[in-house]
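Continued from yesterday's entry.
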Amino acid sequence: MFGLQASIIRLGDVLNEASKYEDQTAPQDAATMGMAQALKLLQERDDGLSHDEQVNIISLFIENPATVDAYLAIEGDSLRRAWMKSMLLDVNAGSILSTPGIE
């Protein structure tokens, strides 16, 4: 009987530790999934962007993860295109990205 009780207590400890680990990784997993979804949509949607512009948008996503959420949340095609063009103008002006080599 004591062995069974000890096993149940140990199982509870393991589950408790696992839930702590899960809580710590969940936001990162969600962010990774959001980035993957944004990159997939960026490639699938015809937003009239050149490959260089798409590369700059990807760099923007990496540098500023909040832009991933914005990109995914904007549903209207024309609004999304206008937003991306605005972001590209800011990137080209150097006000968003400070990464050398990105113009």
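--- second protein ---
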Amino acid sequence: MLAYVRTQTAQGVSHADIAARIAAGALDEFNWSPPEAQPEEAPPRSGQPETPEPSAALLLVREIADQLAGVITSQLVEAREENQRLQAALDEARERAARAEGELAALRGRSFWSRL
């Protein structure tokens, strides 16, 4: 079944269409046999170990990790910008509150007769 799904997705068939085809019995008509075993290559004679080729799964994991890192970085930048906006609004509110307290203290400090 995995070979069928892999073959169909390689041809651009959507997963929903593949599921519908499997439900309709497409696997009965799908002919597949496992590939023949490849002989192992002799290790290099240079004295240094050969670096294995990354598997498709590893490449996929790396790609996903890179994408996640990009998303996290952009979210961090957005969060810092939002933090700066909120900090500026808080500073402005504190300044207005301090001015209002000063005005209130000045009004309370005046005598009754000076307010008239």
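The radius of gyration is 35 Å. The chain has a mean pLDDT of 82. Will compare against the first tomorrow.
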